[in-house]
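Hi R.,

Here are the chain sequences for the assembly we discussed:
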Amino acid sequence: MAALNVRIGALELKNPVMTASGTFGYGLEFADFMPLDGIGGIIVKGTTLKPREGNDYPRMVETAQGMLNCVGLQNKGVDYFCEHIYPQIKDIDTNMIVNVSGSSPEDYAECAARIDALDEIPAIELNISCPNVKDGGMAFGVTCAGAASVVKAVRARYHKTLIVKLSPNVTDITEIARAVEAEGADAVSLINTLMGMAIDIERRKTMLSINTGGLSGPAVKPVALRMVWQVAKAVNIPVVGLGGISSAKDAIEFLMAGATAIEIGTANFLDPAISIKVRDGINDWLDSHGCQSVQEIIGVI
Amino acid sequence: MKKYVLDLTVVSVEQIHERYVLIKLTDVQPLPEMLPGQFVEVRVDGSPSTFLRRPISIHYIDKVNNQLWLLVATVGEGTRWMASLHTGDVVNCVLPLGHGFTMPRQTDEKFLLVGGGVGVAPLLYLGAEIRRMGGEPTFLLGARSAKDLLMLDEFRKYGQVYVTTEDGSAGEKGFVTGHSILSQERFSHIASCGPTPMMKAVARYAHQEDIDCEVSLENLMACGLGACLCCVEKTTEGNLCVCKDGPVFNIKKLLWQL
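And here is the predicted structure of the full complex:
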């Protein structure tokens, strides 16, 4: 049994496996399939200051080794989260992390401040990279100035571990990563979905209600891995890697590329117990390769 | 209800129509409790062009033989893969999922079960359960043509079966909502599953006649668990997940123009 614990800023993870926002609900939806406290963290759905209905149906289309979605941050708002959902999840014995989104630096900061007050939420993941909303979201994540402005506003009002989730839909992701590091982010997570599109040739129409959506799943893994490797070389804060991770082998690739922890997203839809299997698979690989600790493989590339 | 991921074994795959197969699955353990209107997410292995699981209605639970029956329309790569399964093959299923039909509270409640096309699938198990509880369900099944009416002998085991066909080759000619049984008998509840235009017509009828009515929707899904929020339907409570809050909804909750 190798040591699997890792640190992201002040955050202690019992192992490097977390579940990605928007793919694991609030964790409770998966409690029948696996012990929720068996993984290092659960990043719950994107939460905004005010409730959002999200985009119209259809919001999803299957693609080769992946899927496109344009959910558009449907959620009941941060106050509903604090009042109704937090009491149900606060006693789950792992890091319950809230993904925070917004449409201006001020409402990102206000939303983060309300979550700062919740004792059992040790970190937030700041979503400056959602490709499916008109206002805010990715608009902030594609320029250094935009990304910095949100992180600066949030950092002033949020005092726990701040992870910033980056968009791959940029010319140079390392510049954005450096910009958020400079404003006090404790870690970066990447990648959010890659913007994509699908067309129904018989109906001569796009297959998503807002035409475009975010691509996830194994199809994006090589792109995500390359970006994690680039960013890990460019910043001094921990990197959390995600994008198409579906197996322990995939996860180990990300760790070797420089990720301190990883998130499992779309793979949860194919196997609702995949995150525990990935944890066990990482452990087995370390054992069989004579490694005492997961630290021995992080960033070896 | 507790959900499971199970590797079920194929008992048989029967081609009952050029576009439909009946797949019977079993397990060495007793199958978990499943309710009429719930569904399973079937993992499609070995198909290069599919990725997600396929949500399939529970057609029937044969409790004597510990079997789960799926009635599958072969409409794409995933369902064609399912049709190519053989006896003894293993199929990975997440089940039971979703919120099923409301069951009768009293045996004298008169249930009309209206289905069209492959949408008849969940109505067999629903009708069987109503019958088992002492009720007498009536089935009204519609199809394009006589050959497209599926599993009629099975439906007849549990209640009176009326049919309509668009070409008049069986039963009354036309659509289900035009069938004469609707003017002859008064039903207290309608449960419907089928193409959306059919369900909307049924809902319109139920609304006009002030009959309690539930419909089963089949919006495109990814997770099947209420996590991804992809399969949403607009309702009086905002966008709800068809996979978790449905697939069965009372028509009063939907924002359909009736």
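Residues 274-288 of chain A form the longest helix (15 residues). Chain A has a mean pLDDT of 96.

Let me know if anything looks off.

Best,
T.
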